[in-house]
Amino acid sequence: MTYRSPVTDIRFILDHVVPLAPVAETEMFAEATPDMVEAILTEGGKLCDEVIAPTNRDGDLTPAKLENGVVRSPAGFKEAFAALAEGGWIGIAASPEHGGMGLPQALNVGFNDMLSGANLSLQLNPLLTQGQIEALEHHASDEIKALYLPKLISGEWSGTMNLTEPGAGSDVGALKTKAVPNDDGTYAISGQKIYITWGDNDCVSNVCHLVLARLPDAAPGTKGISLFMVPKLIPDDAGKPGVANSLKVVSLEHKLGIHGSPTCVMSYEGATGWLVGEENKGMAAMFTMMNNARLNVGAQGIGVAEAAYQQALAYAKDRVQFAPIVEHADVRRMLAGMKAEIFAARSIALACGVAIDMGRATNDANWQARAALLTPIAKAYGTDMGIRVASTGVQVHGGMGFIEETGAAQYLRDVRITTIYEGTNGIQAMDLVGRKMMDEGKAAFRLLQEIEDEAQGAREAFPVLAEDVWQAAEELREHTEWMVSQGMQDRFAGAVPYLDAFARVLGGYYHLRAAMAEGRDSARGHLAAVYIRRLMPAYAASLAEAKEGAEGLYALSVEDLEA
Amino acid sequence: MTYRSPVTDIRFILDHVVPLAPVAETEMFAEATPDMVEAILTEGGKLCDEVIAPTNRDGDLTPAKLENGVVRSPAGFKEAFAALAEGGWIGIAASPEHGGMGLPQALNVGFNDMLSGANLSLQLNPLLTQGQIEALEHHASDEIKALYLPKLISGEWSGTMNLTEPGAGSDVGALKTKAVPNDDGTYAISGQKIYITWGDNDCVSNVCHLVLARLPDAAPGTKGISLFMVPKLIPDDAGKPGVANSLKVVSLEHKLGIHGSPTCVMSYEGATGWLVGEENKGMAAMFTMMNNARLNVGAQGIGVAEAAYQQALAYAKDRVQFAPIVEHADVRRMLAGMKAEIFAARSIALACGVAIDMGRATNDANWQARAALLTPIAKAYGTDMGIRVASTGVQVHGGMGFIEETGAAQYLRDVRITTIYEGTNGIQAMDLVGRKMMDEGKAAFRLLQEIEDEAQGAREAFPVLAEDVWQAAEELREHTEWMVSQGMQDRFAGAVPYLDAFARVLGGYYHLRAAMAEGRDSARGHLAAVYIRRLMPAYAASLAEAKEGAEGLYALSVEDLEA
């Protein structure tokens, strides 16, 4: 199977569906001209297709290994990572001040989408580094910035996020890792962290750990958490990797998928750390890291779905049962559905990227609220969709899909983690109906109004599709009005289906925009009809579930669940 | 995790939801008294819990191996299989004439459900043997019956089904394996077969292959296919395994899941075979095998879902994040949904079993049509649901779910095959809207009428739930009326969502019956509300998709799909 990066679709979406043009009109992103966008996506796509994608199976077949305390990457990863680093791809969205390209996040999302389709395991390495770069840009001292950012942006060093501990997952505030002040202004970090992605690797000359830890006598919970930079090798006076810090990789996890990505159990034993941001304000910095990562995890789901789709389509064209199976109605249904869902999720993720860029460049609170609203949707829908599409990809292959050599199953195994990490999709949904509705739904209503207005304007050209989208947005608006008057428990009980409904309405909206750009009898017009008529209607069932609230769930006691 | 067979739920369903009582009133199944049912399920459950389930992880960790042409089962499988065989469990539904228990298929379905939850890989061994037993009972000569049936039923020997070839999957008629008549009435079988489940094993002293092959000058397609018994070791005059036949296991597949079950590539090189049934009538015998297997593959999905659910619930009670996560609304939603879906699918499968038994015992055409109608629904919904629930099981575990040692991921990997084999779920759905609607929907309408009548009667006790079920059945009836007037291409394009809608309405109906039996404030009443109010409503979206027909799918050309 030859993976081909979805350059055309990403370009089309940024041109017509969620236009990047207003971003390029800002001073901050003036360099993001159409020519630059074209060059970035084309060159990035080429790298993904020719250099990165060929390493994907190797990552699965020869997983990362821990040898004498050092992680060995799978065959080919070192070279592929070097190509990524040399091209400056890690720092697409990083500040030019320290060597980044300073381009819009929307382009970074597009690149992460393509890179995830090429090799999800490898993509995780720069993804975590990107989160760290953003956290340092916002919260670190000038000294730390000057020392670490150029190396992280160039890919000389890589970054990790150390949040989770055995007893502290979603409840980050329960973490126990300790930070004790040393006399020289540094801190001694001690504790165990788990699920540390790319916690060590031989693609880079140093690994920089951002570690959440607790100062002596810090307040309990999230208010007593501070963030520290804890490098594997302590930089010497010249900024070169020096003596080894007191930390180690204890073991690698044996996982369902992303075998190429080493998931480490880390032990810190009085390791030297430098405070990032203020004492006890670690959560704010963590959210900076995670916000970037959440959107780009959404892009992971989309990228893997794209690769799974391409492979399923190639197989369906090739495989003859009576006729090439792509001609069978049910296979056609599966493939068209996959393509339509990918387009919807990709549009949502890029819309979120554009909103982030507009929020940063203009400081407009509405854009910032739009970005905040779209982030959990982009993450959860992109990854839920990724699992659905990868599973359908297996199904299209029939028996061959269950055979590992085919590669279809790897996509399913790999993408399965994406609904879990960077905050489970349940957490994303609770963020949507909770924090993101603290404005009483204002940001949501603004977006829904925009959808209704657009659908209104599209009625003449697309009487059926426009009416469907308008109606769906209207029902979602009504539901949202009802929801913001409910207590948190009832919101939370319906959070996941509510998010799904929101995403489907958005997907229908963006498909409608695509159809408007290309016309009714275009391929995009037909694909829009597939989405709006066949896949979007599930929003109603999701809203029905969301409206049930919590009571019925708790009517079943734990004993009832066990019976 | 300690697996506990769902004896209580199966008993309850057979008592109150899809009563076995009418079956026990027939002469054929007079032995299936309540005491016998109790004894069978309790003893079967005990065997599954204590002897079979403890081998499940070993099957995954130490897969079946091919050593010098012989398959070695995983650790513990031989002993577990011996216990199954000794208890007579392989022949629960087999004719007493050759040593079977002659009990209803409904009980066999219940047992297969429990056994699949305990160890899916191992369950496949007797499952295939059961299909072979049924094929021989219906189609083989008395000589073959006398020789093979007692050994298959006792578990001394095991059976396989050899249909698929590299170019002939869903298109069985494309197969190329040859059968050339020998002078002594036997046939020389030559060809390659793939995906042969338990194609060899060391749990038994002989492996009996039922092989589809083509006589010289046979008609092309399915009309030129005959069925042959091709034993691994040719029985001597005393019926003992004698000289080796000219067949071999070429290799084992490397699969996503069911690692404990050897999936063989088989090569027949002029192997001696005996005709089963008439020349060129092999497809009929194959359908006998497959019909049994299809329903019991549905039971596989249900059993694995049960095991995944139990493990997720145990984890959710134990894992504390703020509070035990079972107390979080979204986790509660996931668990309640899993339990409700399992109950729905289990009821459908047992209803199908009861219909098969009634059809056999009474020869009533309505019961037979009911069985035929429910078989593809039981298979497809049981297995689709199995994947959904196993995937949700992973999600409930959070990051732990992605770690292989947890075991949650194994359920997802194992169950993923069930929507593919014994006819993909797409094929099941086409069977439903095609062959099973050749009566212009009569069997479906009879069932829907029954649902509407029951719902009508339940309105007083359950005003909301009964109305929901009535309404859903009514919409399904209207859709079915419309559908039977459509051509096959349009039916096929909507077959999968139509089947899903049908299953959800049935699920709602059976939940309503359960609620009626126990009352509104009972655990089953609450669970019924979860299903009917939260999960059943997706039927409407499925019907909307089904109603779109084929046109919109083909409006997207293959080139459009590639763009």
Automatic annotation (TrEMBL), chains A, B:
Cofactor: FAD
Species this chain originates from: Thioclava electrotropha
Annotated protein name in UniProt: Acyl-CoA dehydrogenase
Keyword Oxidoreductase: yes
Keywords in alphabetical order: FAD, Flavoprotein, Oxidoreductase
Transmembrane found in the keyword field: no
Lineage: Bacteria, Pseudomonadati, Pseudomonadota, Alphaproteobacteria, Rhodobacterales
Residues annotated as domain Acyl-CoA dehydrogenase/oxidase C-terminal: 280-432
PANTHER family recorded: ACYL-COA DEHYDROGENASE, BROAD-SPECIFICITY LINEAR ACYL-COA DEHYDROGENASE FADE5
UniProt superkingdom: Bacteria
Domain Acetyl-CoA dehydrogenase-like C-terminal: 447-556
Gene3D superfamilies tied to this protein: Acyl-CoA dehydrogenase/oxidase, N-terminal domain, Butyryl-CoA Dehydrogenase, subunit A, domain 2, Butyryl-CoA Dehydrogenase, subunit A, domain 3
Family: Belongs to the acyl-CoA dehydrogenase family.
Stretches assigned to the Acyl-CoA dehydrogenase/oxidase N-terminal domain: 78-156
Domain Acyl-CoA oxidase/dehydrogenase middle: 161-269
